[in-house]
């Protein structure tokens, strides 16, 4: 069996970017970057991250702003852009609603509540912030639990909202 030789790259990041560019369109890369952009950011920086030209990025950001996926903040030195967090949350909730039945979401909600309850009981604290204050820097298990709690808390909110969508659909439809 003969295999092709592995290409060598001077920089692994350059190789990853080259693959990303070859596997996606410019607009897909812009959307991927803006979806992760939670702080107001100039279009030029988004263009750099998306490996796209500034005019194309500005056009795409204008379109995404018009449909509500992006927020445009007028700054003293030009416009800044970030994802619209409300739309991002809405998309996450709809995705859960579409992918899971109401029963599956309720089961997940129970599991998430159990996870939070167990961590609360284990450490005798009421919040992830309170847990962080009591943990030593080298308490890896504690920090893992802290991360688990934060993730579970976020997923609790999204799961509750997805269940509410199921309930609302029963009323509206």
TrEMBL record:
Gene3D superfamilies in alphabetical order: Winged helix-like DNA-binding domain superfamily/Winged helix DNA-binding domain
Organism: Halorientalis brevis
Domain of life of the organism encoding this protein: Archaea
Protein name: ArsR family transcriptional regulator
